[in-house]
TrEMBL record:
<feature type="active site" description="Tele-AMP-histidine intermediate">
    <location>
        <position position="308"/>
    </location>
</feature>
<comment type="function">
    <text>Catalyzes the conversion of 3'-phosphate to a 2',3'-cyclic phosphodiester at the end of RNA. The mechanism of action of the enzyme occurs in 3 steps: (A) adenylation of the enzyme by ATP; (B) transfer of adenylate to an RNA-N3'P to produce RNA-N3'PP5'A; (C) and attack of the adjacent 2'-hydroxyl on the 3'-phosphorus in the diester linkage to produce the cyclic end product. The biological role of this enzyme is unknown but it is likely to function in some aspects of cellular RNA processing.</text>
</comment>
<dbReference type="GO" id="GO:0005524">
    <property type="term" value="F:ATP binding"/>
</dbReference>
<keyword id="KW-0436">Ligase</keyword>
<dbReference type="InterPro" id="IPR013791">
    <property type="entry name" value="RNA3'-term_phos_cycl_insert"/>
</dbReference>
<feature type="binding site">
    <location>
        <begin position="284"/>
        <end position="288"/>
    </location>
    <ligand>
        <name>ATP</name>
    </ligand>
</feature>
<dbReference type="InterPro" id="IPR023797">
    <property type="entry name" value="RNA3'_phos_cyclase_dom"/>
</dbReference>
<dbReference type="GO" id="GO:0003963">
    <property type="term" value="F:RNA-3'-phosphate cyclase activity"/>
</dbReference>
<feature type="domain" description="RNA 3'-terminal phosphate cyclase insert">
    <location>
        <begin position="189"/>
        <end position="274"/>
    </location>
</feature>
<keyword id="KW-0067">ATP-binding</keyword>
<feature type="domain" description="RNA 3'-terminal phosphate cyclase">
    <location>
        <begin position="7"/>
        <end position="319"/>
    </location>
</feature>
<protein>
    <recommendedName>
        <fullName>RNA 3'-terminal phosphate cyclase</fullName>
        <ecNumber>6.5.1.4</ecNumber>
    </recommendedName>
</protein>
<dbReference type="Pfam" id="PF05189">
    <property type="entry name" value="RTC_insert"/>
</dbReference>
<dbReference type="InterPro" id="IPR013792">
    <property type="entry name" value="RNA3'P_cycl/enolpyr_Trfase_a/b"/>
</dbReference>
<dbReference type="InterPro" id="IPR020719">
    <property type="entry name" value="RNA3'_term_phos_cycl-like_CS"/>
</dbReference>
<comment type="similarity">
    <text>Belongs to the RNA 3'-terminal cyclase family. Type 1 subfamily.</text>
</comment>
<dbReference type="Pfam" id="PF01137">
    <property type="entry name" value="RTC"/>
</dbReference>
Length: 338
């Protein structure tokens, strides 16, 4: 059994450990989970991640409850039986889904996952990021999954429903070192139906347009503004930039007291910052691709090796993957050494 320290990181360390445990069959114990957080231990969405991982591998689990600071996880073989889990309130359904995506390399048949909770909540990727950014980017290196948003779930009530089908995969090496010119920019703006009379989703789109104009960026955009059934009112906006095979995403969430136009401008600002750099992928995707470098091989250039990146790499290496980081003038290259 591997012995891991979760004190220096957050939920990403738990998700990485669960993913690689499922793929390798290696049991682990993680102590001091989220020890450096103001409220340490497992939260509801982390417990849901443990639950789906337990389900697909009939794992022996000790400590997979809310508030636990130690988790032991010993998986059996991965199966393709359907999995249905409720995160509770507005816990992130997208982060739960992220936990299972790497098991594509261990599947014999497609696996369906249904998660109830928050589809668009702070500190996690919006549902439209998962389906319009992560999904096409993964397809470029041979990993295929589908995402359906059956119902939107915003903070605080959640109640959203996300359905994911993960296909078996034998991925090609990941190779993201440079960024081709911009091909297209799409804007996906969504709000609960309770906000339709105030035209919130449409105003977020206008905020994106104004933000791009202020930054002096003149690019044609395609837009989608929708109003969805939801238990709690809420909003999200996602910008999707396509540059050849590279797909990058930039998002913002609405909040009480913040004008919809300002929310759109916030997402536009993140996009313009990326445009002025030469980063091949957005900063959130750079972190997510570390596990795929381990599983598929290849190289990914990231802006810097932050503490968040380093702790994640430490977990990946603990599972036996030889991952190297090479410093360059234009950033750091993470690669698997074969």
């Amino acid at each position: 059994m591997l012995h891991l320290d979760g004190g220096a990181g957050g939920g990403q360390l738990i998700r990485t450990a669960l993913s690689l445990s499922l793929v390798t069959g290696e049991a682990f114990e993680m102590k001091n989970i989220r020890g450096n957080r103001s409220t340490p231990g497992l939260k509801a969405q982390h417990v849901a991640c443990v639950s789906v991982a337990e389900s697909v591998a009939d794992a022996d689990v000790d400590g997979g409850v809310e508030g636990a600071s130690t988790l032991q996880f010993d998986p059996g073989p991965v199966t393709s039986d359907p999995v249905d889990v409720a995160v509770g309130t507005a816990g992130s359904t997208t982060l739960v889904s992220e936990t299972l995506l790497p098991v594509a390399v261990a599947l014999d048949d497609s696996l369906t996952l249904t998660v109830t909770g928050g589809t668009d909540v702070r500190w996690s990727p919006p549902a439209d990021y998962l389906r319009y950014v992560k999904r096409p980017l993964c397809a470029t290196f041979g990993v295929s999954f589908d995402v359906d948003v059956n119902r939107r779930g915003f903070y605080p009530a959640g109640g959203g429903r996300l359905a994911v089908r993960i296909d078996p995969a034998d991925p090609n090496p990941v190779e993201f070192l440079s960024r081709p010119p911009l091909d297209s920019l799409d804007v996906y703006s969504v709000a609960g139906k309770a906000l339709a009379d105030a035209s919130v989703a449409d105003r977020q789109v206008e905020g994106v347009r104004d933000g791009l104009a202020t930054a002096g960026i003149d690019v044609p955009i395609r837009t989608s503004a929708t109003y969805a059934e939801s238990t709690s009112p809420g909003t999200a906006v996602v910008l999707v930039a396509r540059c050849g095979e590279i797909v990058a995403g930039f998002d913002a969430y609405g909040e009480r007291g913040v004008r919809a136009e300002a929310v759109g401008a916030q997402a536009a600002e993140a996009f313009t910052d990326w445009c002025r750099s030469d980063a091949p992928v957005d900063r959130h995707m750079a972190d997510q691709l570390l596990v795929w470098v381990a599983l598929a091989g290849g190289r990914v250039r990231i802006p810097a090796v932050t503490e968040h990146v380093q702790t994640n790499l430490d977990v990946i290496r603990a599972f036996g993957y030889d991952i190297d980081v090479r410093e360059r003038d234009d950033g750091s290259v993470v690669e698997r050494i074969d």
